[in-house]
Design a protein that fits this description.
single chain; alpha/beta; two-stranded antiparallel sheet; 9 strands; elongated
């Protein structure tokens, strides 16, 4: 399932309230240049020239956490994601207009700062607690637009561990997102932000056909990276021990997902960027 199909009635009030706030804000800003001054903004930024935006999964985990920060602080979340391609190429806005950054009038002229800039490894936010209560969070200057170059968990941990965040988690009975994988919350945030583009749906359908999978059939997907490119350290990730661990995890997932599907086999589908990974996997488990 490319995008979780969650009906609006399944979304908690703090998300539906934010959807109305966000879209009303965007429409108000588009109506007049002066309206931009009435709101605060949280912007995910990864331009074509930024060379340290993290990997795709890290970016998405961070963007979902950023949306939670925007909800708690009543900020307008915008995503300016251009590398390697515009995010809209594969994931389209669903329930909020997060892709309006370049078209909104007046935002580029507002005072702005970074929470965390991975290119310089600098935290600019002086007072995360104040920021999470809706204030500036900066002692020296006011900023209506707060940007994050990379949105991985480390750059957001101090925000989501603040007193305001903990009060929010308690109020809505949410487990702190930085401590556990809150799967249902992630699904709800993802479904609010995204729907698959026609290009992505076409690519998925074609990939399924090439792998011999039915359109709606189940499978266990695993991604095994070689690891040198884009990693802080040159780690070789396809040792026999490592590959064996992947297979064991896959078998456990298969056993768990086979419940209720006794007559249906669930194949392993492995994506790897190095032939050695494929050779080891096939040697250990020819059913991959």
């Amino acid at each position: 399932d490319i995008s979780p199909k969650i009906a609006a009635t399944q979304l908690p009030s703090y998300i539906t309230d934010y959807i109305h706030f966000h879209n009303d804000a965007i429409n108000s800003i588009k109506a007049g240049t002066e309206q931009a001054k009435n709101f605060r903004y949280l912007v995910y930024s990864c331009g074509k020239k930024d060379d340290r935006c993290s990997g795709t999964a890290q970016r998405q985990r961070g963007i979902l956490a950023m949306m939670l920060v925007a909800i708690i602080t009543n900020r307008v979340l915008l995503i300016d994601y251009a590398k390697p391609v515009r995010l809209e190429t594969v994931l389209q806005p669903n329930l909020i207009q997060w892709n309006a950054y370049e078209t909104l009038k007046g935002i580029d002229k507002l005072p702005n700062t970074f929470i965390y800039n991975r290119n310089t490894n600098q935290y600019v936010l002086d007072e995360p607690g104040v920021f999470m209560e809706g204030g500036d969070g900066n002692k020296k200057e006011s900023a209506q637009v707060t940007k994050i170059l990379t949105a991985g968990p480390p750059s957001l941990a101090n925000l989501l561990a603040s007193e305001a965040s903990m009060d929010f988690f308690k109020k809505y009975n949410i487990r702190p997102i930085m401590e556990v994988r809150e799967t249902v919350l992630y699904k709800r945030l993802f479904a609010t932000l995204y729907k698959p583009s026609e290009l992505l749906k076409t690519e998925f359908t074609q990939a399924r056909k090439e792998l011999g999978l039915q359109l709606n059939s189940k499978y266990i997907g695993m991604h095994v990276r070689y690891g040198n490119e884009g990693s802080a350290k040159a780690v070789v990730r396809y040792s026999d021990k490592g590959v064996a661990a992947f297979i064991e995890v896959g078998k456990a997932l298969k056993e768990e997902n086979m419940k209720g599907f006794a007559d249906e086999d669930i194949p392993f589908v492995v994506v790897a960027d190095e032939q050695g990974v494929k050779d080891r996997l096939l040697a250990m488990d020819p059913l991959v």
